[in-house]
Task: structure prediction
Amino acid sequence: MKFTDDQIADIGEEIIGVLKTVYDPEIPVDIYELGLIYDVQISDEADVKIIMTLTTPNCPVAETLPQEVKDKVKAVENVNEVDLELTFEPSWNKDMMSEEAKFELGML
Result:
């Protein structure tokens, strides 16, 4: 089934909403505001590709966090397949955080 651009945009907004419920265990800010999500691509058949990183390659949740992201995104209505790619290029740094995240952490 093919979705319209508007439907894809709605699915995208729902995915972002879900990503904002996933938290890095070491920093009390969600992974979206932290800038750990590099890209979310949605095909017109609602196949989703997420490119994300972790704060460090040896992050204690390196195994579980990507799986949690994948499971939560897959649960979004109309989402078909979810492909998650973990990358460390470019490596994450504090500049990637949203203003909101920096404020939460007292960095502003």
Notes: The first strand starts at residue 37 and ends at 42.
